[in-house]
Prior knowledge:
The chain folds into 2 domains: 185 residues, no CATH class; 245 residues, no CATH class. It is of the alpha+beta class.
Amino acid sequence: MRIGFKLVLVAVMTVLILIPLAMVNGLIGERQRYRDEAVADIGRMYASPQTVSGPVLTVPYTETVDAQEIGSDGAVRTVRKRQTFAWTFFPTRLDASGTVATSTRSRGLYHVPVYEWAGAVKADFDVEIPADVPGADRIIGTPVLGYGVADVRGMHGTPKLVIDGRDVALLEGAGVREDPGVHAVLAAPASDAHFALRTQLDLKLAGTQSLAFVPLGKQNRIDLKSTWPHPSFQGLSPWQSEISDTGFHAQWQVASIATDAQRQYLSRQPSYVATPSGMSTARDVTLPTLGVLLDDPVDAYTLADRATKYGVLFVAITFVGFFMFEVIRQLPIHPIQYGLVGLALVIFFLLLVSLSEHIPFPAAYATASGACIGLIGFYLSAVLRSALRGTAFAATLGLLYAALYGLLISEDNALVLGSLLLFAILAAIMIATRRLDWYRVGGQLASSRTI
């Protein structure tokens, strides 16, 4: 068998191994979808990820305006008619703070972080009602102070709203926007009036995975504390944050001009869609938010998916090692033996996924890699006709698995580590074969096959 033909055969075997690798990758995607369904199911039974917006003060009014109408004869006439409008006022200062108490809920194999936020939303308003327009016959309606809550099922107990030191009753819905939330009805002001409001909403809000706030105030301060040790901050980075094994404390201080939230609120109304469970969730909402995601630092499916992307590299390196044994030690290795070892490498990823669903990912990785390395080392002791060679090959494979684990847990440095690994492997092959006469080796391989 000529050396060129053998190289082509090894390349074909490597490509064929991509088929079971793709099947394992598809299995990982399927398990991820099952996990996402479990998250959604827990959200339906408990509460979905929460976003809190507001408060926003809306003051409706009606007045007489001149409007153009086309008559039955096609002529355009100016008529006077009454129309309804509204003024929208945002807080001059918005302060949301509280403690996020976390726990986990399980659905089958899957565990989902849930929380209860015991907090307060404080807001100050400085309102200037425009003066009457002569001839408009303006009538000011009932003002509404509205708070948006993505999933009102998460409100535990009865929220308490205090305005200027007085308790105010809360009603369902966020007010004139008809979004999920709560609102309060205030006394109608007079035209050209100037007044200030100091408001505070105390509530306990449960949700899954994430908690976010829309910074609608002119000045916004968000302060969150929790015992969750692995937060992932969303939106703008916190102004100050402390993260340790015992939890985190994060604080945002943001001005409205840095988020554009007020303009987006006025120009685009968020829409909500009903779900089979009866809750409403936001859809197509682009309002900026600040908050935290209760992240899983070791997402087994994400890491397993990343690991399979290196699968073809593992197979190629292993097959190159086989080929080098053939060339240097003159040991004939059959294509079926290439294929069996390649399948053993693929089984590693399947073991990794299945074990990580039951035990921590590091333990699953160690167990799966140890089993495959042991199997391959035992098999190669016979294929390479030496227990020492089989052990040495297995030890080399163990170094590769260790390098892969380093790539998985060092996402930020994965590219540089992977580049250095490939460089080291290529350098080792070039150094080992620097004095090899490939023409002579090819002739020897061909003659050994014909004996």
